[in-house]
Amino acid sequence: MMSVNVRMVDITGKAESERLAVAEGKIRLRRETIEKIRRGEVPKGDVLAVAKTAAIMAVKKTWEIIPLCHPIPITFVDVNFDVMEEELRVRVEVKTTAKTGVEMEALTGASVALLTVWDMVKSLEKDQEGQYPYTEINSIRVVEKVKRQL
Amino acid sequence: MMSVNVRMVDITGKAESERLAVAEGKIRLRRETIEKIRRGEVPKGDVLAVAKTAAIMAVKKTWEIIPLCHPIPITFVDVNFDVMEEELRVRVEVKTTAKTGVEMEALTGASVALLTVWDMVKSLEKDQEGQYPYTEINSIRVVEKVKRQL
Amino acid sequence: MMSVNVRMVDITGKAESERLAVAEGKIRLRRETIEKIRRGEVPKGDVLAVAKTAAIMAVKKTWEIIPLCHPIPITFVDVNFDVMEEELRVRVEVKTTAKTGVEMEALTGASVALLTVWDMVKSLEKDQEGQYPYTEINSIRVVEKVKRQL
Amino acid sequence: MMSVNVRMVDITGKAESERLAVAEGKIRLRRETIEKIRRGEVPKGDVLAVAKTAAIMAVKKTWEIIPLCHPIPITFVDVNFDVMEEELRVRVEVKTTAKTGVEMEALTGASVALLTVWDMVKSLEKDQEGQYPYTEINSIRVVEKVKRQL
Amino acid sequence: MMSVNVRMVDITGKAESERLAVAEGKIRLRRETIEKIRRGEVPKGDVLAVAKTAAIMAVKKTWEIIPLCHPIPITFVDVNFDVMEEELRVRVEVKTTAKTGVEMEALTGASVALLTVWDMVKSLEKDQEGQYPYTEINSIRVVEKVKRQL
Amino acid sequence: MMSVNVRMVDITGKAESERLAVAEGKIRLRRETIEKIRRGEVPKGDVLAVAKTAAIMAVKKTWEIIPLCHPIPITFVDVNFDVMEEELRVRVEVKTTAKTGVEMEALTGASVALLTVWDMVKSLEKDQEGQYPYTEINSIRVVEKVKRQL
């Protein structure tokens, strides 16, 4: 038998714990774009509400997107934004009661929040050639991971 | 009628063009993790093959993940990696013949490739408290976007 | 931090209970369409079997369709129809053992059952201009919701 | 060969046309709930932004939810709400250039918008026994369907 | 750049053709199970209607299930069964107008039809130890593939 | 009430057990194709890594593909291949802690692994008319099913 070198971790025997993970990330945007987000003047609409909704939905679908993630019964997702002068930061918190942690879920949520922000402001970030010389997603990382015995 | 402030762009009247977009991104990893990726010694298996497969599948599902993206008949996806000493870079190229561009698809593919890399090397990147003090995804951006009249 | 005003309910600390929810709804159809459903003469086929299958599948996917719904391990779905003279009624029962109720699942099942019925009889309900002057879905509501401590 | 009585319509030979469909529907809510939606005081947040986002995403997924619907490259979705004294109305417009119409997509969008509204205001609509004696979705119908030769 | 060895075929430059593919397969079942299918006495219900519905839905989702398949706008699916004495055969026909063929779609449809049949008759096929000594899916193959220039 | 003859099994009252199921299957391929798989010379790339990734993802999605399957929190999937002279065999093992067994998940994983292999070697298996006279999937069956009281 050829064991192809792709292995899902076996969590069958693990006990359920209460789990929390927090991930963050940021997107660099033009100052004018940031201004329009603040003023609610982005043509595609309410950037943060759509990005937050997208992030929550992506957190729940992480196991469908990341091949070796286990399906997890997400019990809470929170998504908050910090609108700075030249960038927009996101912080995603995910909770569950499960046999494995939710850091991939939090990271996926942060990534999708920022990708959705980008999609919402595409017309404002593109230059005349239709390129994005300035826009960039950065610093996607796990801020905190907690496991609490039940 | 209250027009809620969320607007999908109307592309009904646009002509189909040949479209290409290239996105890049990178993930900072410990030197030992990079070494294990190079040597094929990561416990969860072939990191780059799984990450590439995940990225291709995510590109095709972008319209399901990013709320205001249009469904697009993807005709090609390529995903390549550059394994540096302290980071792993990904470059995703997407093509289609459609009424709108595929930069969100390329960006989603790059993000999912890097998230999958993270998931594959979790056990190597975690410290003793189960935290990820070093791992970080950065520089997700659109490198090139091309539209060619048919 | 700007807290965007979209909040998933945190059910992490709630105990699991046995849950049941029943939803109903109805679709008004032409008498001739109802007759064809009864006689099994609808060109697209067995309306009720397809609608029931669609409803069961939709119940399981509710968390993918309704943004702030939690993923729930559905343990039972039943879908029954009442074919009246001028309308078709559906009753969807959903059960689970979970931390939150399943009324949204039952409502989604009832809605999808009725939408599927509509799709199956489109050709019989359209008038000569291709419009649907008569067809209408009504009275989608929760009939019963039960929570039983384990 | 037993031909099971379930038949997808064969649209292979049909020409592509520009298609538009508009569907409407409404949900009856308590006056106090309506007031809280107007004032932005619903605990789960911005009801209409989440419902609109959910509706757009559901329109794109209609072929996944309704078994015999063809996959269609949606080019535009618009969702608008009318907040009346005792009910909330939704109007969903869908466009495409395709071989078949988009009325099921518009109807699915309207249904999911209203289901999402319900989910957002659950805590305000439930009575002390956790039942929903008042809430009800009604009048989901196709208002207009247009086909324009290219 | 390390080119990971996973390559989607680039169909961007190919012309659209009318495509048809037919796949077949069969499942071996106990004679008593076959009898119950014929008489409509299977406890889980109408085996062939559910299997056909599942197959049509799977055909449309093939690009989500098979990593390197292109998304294809399916225009027709037909699924027929032949109930023999000791086995049940399925034949799935798929059509599209697209840049690539639909044999993977037809094969996926045939596989899912047979898997669904199995799921529907599980209780009849299991022995006293809960094993399936007799049930087996066989002969999944492409019967015909046609490409017709437009 | 017309009880449409489609019934999901009610597992609400069942206790959770540790579950394991193993399924197998095989695909007949040309000797030259097998040789190219062994040597890593298949143009579409690493056949077994992509097939294994696809199988793991399909196992997790079984409840979405097979209409009456319950959603199950998969805790482990393993996929192994045996490359023979004229055929390739797959063995899929699935584990969970749940109220019902995972044989449909294992069978779906085996089917999708083999379909993905087919997709990866299409260009090598097609004859000059674009037909597949030789390729065939066979012997998909449950090898073992275990239920262990917790």
UniProtKB/TrEMBL annotation, chains A, B, C, D, E, F:
Family, per entry: Belongs to the MoaC family.
Gene responsible for this protein: moaC
Catalytic activity: (8S)-3',8-cyclo-7,8-dihydroguanosine 5'-triphosphate = cyclic pyranopterin phosphate + diphosphate
Membrane-spanning intervals of the chain: none
Name by which UniProt lists this protein: Probable cyclic pyranopterin monophosphate synthase
Gene Ontology molecular function: cyclic pyranopterin monophosphate synthase activity
Positions that bind substrate: L68, C69, H70, M104, E105
InterPro entries associated with the record: Mo_CF_biosynth-C_arc, MoaC, MoaC_sf, MoCo_biosynth_MoaA/MoaC, Mopterin_CF_biosynth-C_dom
Functional description taken from the UniProt entry: Catalyzes the conversion of (8S)-3',8-cyclo-7,8-dihydroguanosine 5'-triphosphate to cyclic pyranopterin monophosphate (cPMP).
Family annotation (Pfam families): MoaC
